[in-house]
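Crash report, auto-generated. Payload:
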Amino acid sequence: MIAESFTLGKRALTKWTRNPFAVIVTSIQALFWLALFGSSFNPANALASSAGSLGPLQQAFGGASNYITFLTPGVISIVALTGMSFMGVDLVFDRINGYMDVLRAFPIPRTSIYFGGVIQNVAKGMVAAPITFALALLVPNGLHLAPGFGVLNLVGVFAVVALLTTVFATFFTGIAISVKSTDTFFAAVNFLTFPFMFTSSAFFPLSFFPDWLKPVAQANPITLASDAMRLLIVNSNLGTSQVLALGGDLAGLALFGVIFATAGILMARNALKAR
Amino acid sequence: MGNIIEADSLTKSFESSRRVVDGASFSVGAGEVFSLLGPNGAGKTTTIRMLTTLTAITEGTAIIAGHDVNKDPKAVREAIGVVPQEVTLDNELKGIENLLLTAKLQHVPDSEAKTRSMELLRLVELDEFAGKRVGTYSGGMKRRLQLVAALVHQPKILFLDEPTVGLDIQTRTKIWDYIGQLNEEQGVTIFMTTHYLEEADQLSDVVAIMDHGTVKVAGTPKELKASLHGDVLTLTVEGGREDLTIFLKSIPGVIEVTRTDDTYRLKLPKVEAALPQIVTSIASRGLTITETSFSKPTLDQVFLEVTGRSLRDAEEGNGHSDVYADVHGRETR
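Recovered output after restart:
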């Protein structure tokens, strides 16, 4: 099953690299978030501080010295989520044009169709993260890395992205395999994207949220991933409490992974069985 | 040779819908080209989908290459190749890459995959285009590639769902040649559905006529046509007002004669055998034949005989165009 999943994943990626439109769109989207949203919603604007410093708000913003530093992990997480819509649509097309049926008549485990989909979604989704990271460093008054930010921090950031992308991919691949039209797929993705996005700490810290929303926001995979990345970007060395916080975020993401993967596999198996 | 496909009372009903396939029974001998002929909406695609493990069988059984579709779908999948109605190739991949991908998923050893793929490409005259992306292929080329993509793992049976639907006549004839060739050279049994009379007639060893979800009759095209008992000869005779009906009926081999004015319609087993005698007999009475035509029995006439309407009428009556059938087929998946 593993071999077939990778063969299918590779197929999708080869197709994708030969038609790189989605890569370009994803990158532009990241730029919009950083440059447009990052400028207009920057709390430093209200503070009228010099050089965009968050000043007294720095503590609330997880220790980030400016807003883009706070926002970058959020944008990376959001792009991992929104990317699923145009990554997963390839699977919907596979179903519409009959390729899914060709695969279903092959002597391969049908779950390999699902895992092939997860692999392609993760691989595609991961491409946007380094681009977003680089763009954040390039925009004016952009991402400030902690002094002493090293390879380990960088590896850590991308490990968090990989985990988050996998969490979303396991779920959205299940949806993509289940739906019968692109309309339904985009409707489902849109329906899910906004609650994930706006109940998270992607744009503002949790302390800004009303009390009733805080528990929901805390248990949001985007919050978990964004906060984990912030710990790794703002601090070069983590203290015990920060290591515990990081561990909690990762455990939370892993739990989401288990739940979403179970849901995704059930959806896919139901959609792929003969009826 | 034994039967490689045995379908017994195959039935499919979808929730809240009529029986799309209603007790269809048929068998296919190993090495045969078998056609399921019928109008759109007759249940052909659903039948092929049940045989290829894509759609669950509501009632009845199907044995494919010795394996029960209900009990051991995996073994069935190993024995078959499926060419769907739609082109399902990857446009972004090259011709050869499409075949190698299928080979890999069909567990063909890497060492053999390449040689086998190239051999198949040569067979359908696409070897020159092996390194070109499929997106640059014409519709006919894609169909040819799709045909051999289903053969890289050397299946015992190849299922073709309307292999030439939507193609122009020239391309269609070419595809027929390839199908015949694949059957002969690769020794693969071919099961196909079609609503083209010529396709069924030219290609098949056995034709089964399907209508309203059941197989009405099956046999070689020759047998089916022979069941109509003969050719039809039409003669127009000039001069003489006498009724020739009795005279013509007395000629050996003539089964039936009907007259409209000076025109006579003769039914006879073989028009070539009786024609010379008919002509000389009429001439010997001092009469001249001014017009003559004859028709061989066609599968359409067979269809008419068993269903009470011609295949073309059945298509129009259903209001089914190819496009409609396509959409409909998808809805039922």
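Post-recovery validation: The CA atoms of residues 121 and 169 of chain A lie 6 Å apart.
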